[in-house]
Give the backbone structure.
Amino acid sequence: MTRPSISSKPDQAETLHQRIRSDIEKKILSGAWPPGHRIPFEHELRAEYGCSRMTVNKVLSRLAEIGLLDRRRRAGSFVSRPRVQSAVLEIPDIKAEISRRGQEYRYELISRRRRRATREDRALLVVESGTDVLMLTCRHFAGREPFAFEERRLNLAAVPTAADVDFSREPPGTWLLGHVPWTEAEHRIMSLNAGNTYAAPLSITPETACLQVERRTWRERESITHVRQVFPGNLYYLSASFAPAQN
């Protein structure tokens, strides 16, 4: 028996909208629905969730806007292939970098907290008040030596599946690169002394020169993550190659 539609109540309709979107995103971001996979037709989703055509259409339209779905007239909706803009600086996978150096990689999750966006979260992630944010702090090691201290914010409205990931086992940067398509990135790089904030987690003196990299990524107009990574200056450098624009 088909469940009665609940879309006539705005608060319940919005909750159902979020549930449908979350279910579809989880299947895409987990790889259960790979790129090119046709998702169920609108009428199949309506029957599954007992909702109106408008609710399903709103969900699919939003997922198409942020680049997760390609909607094709009469053919249906398909999981998009990642469309990534070229960046002068690539987004590195610290785990892979250390392994390429021939060193043993180790990772330590220091803290994990889910919260409503604070003023600082809203400024760094560019999200609205009330947005759920996952705040992570962690350390990366090359052999026995601390290689980087990381503070990362994840926008759970954009990546709801991150709330269920065990980041004590997998670094957040590695997981994001493997599961979450992005379309734009912004880097901010500066030098600084470790100070009292970073000296202890990096096992260095407060006067030690460090390199700080801040990065923010988006999928279309939706912010995904902001990360701040601090490296002892003698352990890390950034390089990029590019060619002049062709007229």
Summary: The chain has two domains: 10-79, 94-232. Strands lie at 69-72, 76-79, 105-116, 132-142, 145-155, 184-193, 209-219, 222-232. The CA atoms of residues 89 and 240 lie 6 Å apart. Confidence is low (pLDDT under 50) at residues 1-10, 83-88.
